[in-house]
């Protein structure tokens, strides 16, 4: 049987939530490396909420995906052929690759991983972009002080789960927000948050108030929407709001450049008034701007994971063919922890 | 003729824009100082937009004015009787006093001014709270770099007029936003802004775009409303938005704690999305938090005014009896520069 290179391409751009027909699986030939090139076999593919933005044909901090071309993402791969003296067969590498089982590379942009590392997929999560995002956003933008109350949206997700654990290490009281009682139980029981509130519960706002008797000093914004509305009245004077993501809005027209089409009431005057009266700082950040801090991040988080002070929640889905459905579920909050696809050959 | 102490009290709380019947003039006896007290005669009274917030019975960064009691504000007064050895008759003092022609004080909270200063009213404006607000908000929150484009709302007002001139000194390209062609002409002609755009002009957004060919790096927010809507799409990656005031909203129910009652569309998702994608920092501040910087401010701004590098725009209205009408006009943008009341005896 000739091996085929199963590849998932963007078949059409979603309007609102993505659906399976926005994706198409193609069976392509396995490519043959030319001089200086490597053939990579996919081990783990990262699925991340920011990818939804790239499915729109709108300017953002990353360019749009092209129609009929493979979607791309962070991936851990194994070198299975090498015509590049910088890499040997068997090397484990991290790079930004297509949603496909085999890929060519000239080595540019690849980072070699320890070939014997116990959890190669961590390079896509806790020790990768989401972990780095959590570390920078909390410590450099949120800047929690000991005894602060830190509220973390998306608390069981790839970023939020790390944010809360770092905040605990720094001495803060940590309150998670997650979707559903099961996730909330894991956030408290497995990740050690002080409390976790279910944003799907009709009593969410009251429960958040009860969980934050001293108000909120840092709100790590990952979701937007109704969670932000409940957080706003609880923000203390001098509160910091790192804006890392807005998953509740990724399917909205306003996110893809469609303007303020969301129906009213207009919440902006209330938000700006609160920012003014309580001297709040709301600050967006994109982790790719902060590569200079990457070594510090790896030292910190690698140490905490090794010491058992940070636990990693992973949601591993087998088979590249399941990536579209898993990605659709990610935007609906169906994942538990960092979502990765494990390829058949991993 | 026995001198009377004309006093303006808060007769009722406004709903929306204040009207003359929210104020009442009373003729009270001139008080007699007791042991340790001073009798002060009003010279200049400061009228500032933040006072609108104090007319509401709602928590804010300053407590509400009380009904049937004198409104209060920054004032420059002359000591005309002293039973306090710290002050002599003839001393010129700055303090937070009532809207009244005579006041008692035990000296607490008063700052002596140079009794021979050429422009005592500057202590309420360029060298007072509004100037300090401008200096701190621009330099400590906005942090302009040379060649940045700085857009200043309320450009002919007490704060905005100083913000823009400091930004020019720091090497920025400075674009004002003001209400009406006359104000815009003064902002460019007298204050030296590089451009000024009239927010009342139907072509405002296009004119702002034309005046900011390299986008906006710092937007000094004084007004809110439609000006912010035009600024938002022009904000550059890494832009800073110090939120100093929201005069367009001071008469809104949402400002006085009434919640998000403004009609849609809801602009918040678009704003948060922009903050995220362009890594923007929106930060509220209140100048009373930053007293430690006051000496640096006075040294900087005093030097620039003395050297002719900062010009002071003042709108002086004679007679305390005209304070209510002048204050109503301030919220409508009818003033030109820092609005002060000059008392009959000044």
Automatic annotation (TrEMBL), chains A, B:
Please, which domain of life does this record's source organism belong to? Bacteria
| Annotated keywords | Oxidoreductase
According to the record, the residues making up region (Disordered) are 1-26
> What range(s) does the Enoyl reductase (ER) domain occupy?
18-341
The record lists the membrane-crossing segments as none
- Output the CDD domains linked to this UniProt entry: PGDH (cd05288)
Q: What is the official name of this protein in its record?
A: NADP-dependent oxidoreductase
Question: What organism is listed for this UniProt entry?
Answer: Sphingomonas abietis
UniProt lineage? Bacteria, Pseudomonadati, Pseudomonadota, Alphaproteobacteria, Sphingomonadales
């Amino acid at each position: 049987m000739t091996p085929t290179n199963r590849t998932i391409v963007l078949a059409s751009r979603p309007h609102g939530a993505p659906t399976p027909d926005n994706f198409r699986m193609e069976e392509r030939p396995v490519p043959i490396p030319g001089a200086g090139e490597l053939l990579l076999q996919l081990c783990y593919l990262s699925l991340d909420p920011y990818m939804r933005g790239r499915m729109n044909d709108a300017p953002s901090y990353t360019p749009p995906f092209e129609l009929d071309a493979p979607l791309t993402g962070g991936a851990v791969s194994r070198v299975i052929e090498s015509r590049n003296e910088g890499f040997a067969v068997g090397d484990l590498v991290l790079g930004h690759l297509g949603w496909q089982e085999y890929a060519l590379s000239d080595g540019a942009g690849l980072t070699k991983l320890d070939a014997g590392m116990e959890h190669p997929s961590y390079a896509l999560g806790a020790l990768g972009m989401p972990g780095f995002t959590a570390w920078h956003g909390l410590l450099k933008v949120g800047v929690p002080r000991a005894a602060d109350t830190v509220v973390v949206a998306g608390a069981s997700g790839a970023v939020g789960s790390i944010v809360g654990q770092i905040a605990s290490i720094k001495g803060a009281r940590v309150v998670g927000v997650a979707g559903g009682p099961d996730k909330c139980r894991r956030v408290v029981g497995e990740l050690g948050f002080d409390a976790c509130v279910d944003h799907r519960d009709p009593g969410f706002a009251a429960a958040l108030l009860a969980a934050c008797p001293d108000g909120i000093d840092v709100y790590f914004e990952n979701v937007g929407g109704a969670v932000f509305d409940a957080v706003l009245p609880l923000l203390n004077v001098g509160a910091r709001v790192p804006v890392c993501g807005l998953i509740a809005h990724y399917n909205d027209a306003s996110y893809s450049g469609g303007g303020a089409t969301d129906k009213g009431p207009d919440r902006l005057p209330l938000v700006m008034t609160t920012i003014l009266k309580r001297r709040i700082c709301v600050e967006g950040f994109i982790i790719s701007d902060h590569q200079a801090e990457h070594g510090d991040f790896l030292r910190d988080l690698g140490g905490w994971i090794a010491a058992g002070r940070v636990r990693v929640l992973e949601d591993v889905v087998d088979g590249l063919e399941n990536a579209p459905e898993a990605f659709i579920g990610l935007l609906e909050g169906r994942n538990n922890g960092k979502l990765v696809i494990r390829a058949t050959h991993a």
